Amino acid sequence: MPQPRPFVAGNWKMNGLSAALAEADAVKEGAAALAGAVDLALCPPATLVHRMAERLAGSAVGVGGQDCHAKATGAHTGDVSAEMLADAGAAYVIVGHSERRADHGESDADVRAKLEAAHRAGLVAIVCVGETKEEREAGRALEIVRGQLDGSLVEGLTAARTVIAYEPVWAIGTGLVPTLDDIAEMHAAVREALAAKAEAAEVAAMRILYGGSVKPSNAAEILAVANVDGALVGGASLKASDFLAIASAAPRR
Ligand SMILES: O=C[C@H](O)COP(=O)(O)O
C-alpha cells in the first residue's frame, strides 16, 4: 500500500507578532515549488489566524489553530471555538498537544471532545500523542501512546479529517530525537492502533506525523521512516527557510 502524501505543519506556539506574517509570506512563495508533492500548514497563535489566512488565501499553505474549545459558543472566557477558527479562515486545528495536556491539565476525554468539535466545524484535527521521558525509560512508551489514542480518538475517523502527530514529550524543543528504529516502531504501533478507530482504507491513508526537534538537518532521515507521513514542526517553523527546507526533505510519493 503506498504511503500517503506527506504533510508538514508548523506550530508557532506562543510566538509571533504581526511582523512574523512576513515569514508566512515567504512560506507561501516557497510552497509553490512543493505543490502537489507535500501538503503544508502553519498554525500561528490565535491572534494571527485570520490575518495569516487572508495572506495565504489561494496558496498551497493551509492555516490552523493550536487548540479549540469543545463547545461552539458560550461563557468560556478566553477560549476560542473550532467554529471561530473556521470562521477566521483556519482549515486545521491541533488538539491534545502535550503542552496543553501539561499546562492546562487536558485529559484524553477533553482531547476527544475537542476532536469532535474540530470535525463539527469542518476542520482537520491534528491529534497529538506522546510519552514523557520517564514513561519511555520505564519501557511504557507504546502502552502510553496506545492509551492516549484509545482515549483521545472517536470511532469512524477519516484520513481527510484527522491527522495523528506522535510527539515524544522529551524530544520537544530539546534537540533530542528518538532513534529511527524507535520512531518506526512507534509509528507502526500507531497505525495498528488506528484500526480500532477507522476503516482499513482510512487507516492506510491517514497521515501520522512525527514531531519533536525536527530540523533541516534531520528531516530527510526522519521523513523517510516507514509510516512517517510528515512532521509537526515547532521551533524550526518560525523561520520560513528552515520550514521549507524540512518540507522539501519529504519524500515524493
Ligand atoms: O508541535 C510541535 C512540537 O511540539 C515540536 O516542537 P519542536 O520542533 O520545537 O521540538
TrEMBL record:
InterPro entries membership: Aldolase_TIM, TIM_sf, TrioseP_Isoase_bac/euk, Triosephosphate_isomerase, Triosephosphate_isomerase_AS
TM spans (from-to): none
A biological-process GO annotation: glyceraldehyde-3-phosphate biosynthetic process
Protein's gene: tpiA
GO cellular component terms, semicolon-separated: cytosol
Phylogenetic classification of the source organism: Bacteria, Pseudomonadati, Pseudomonadota, Alphaproteobacteria, Hyphomicrobiales
Keyword Cytoplasm in annotation: yes
Annotated Gene3D superfamilies: Aldolase class I (3.20.20.70)
Official protein name in the record: Triosephosphate isomerase
Compartments in which it is found: Cytoplasm
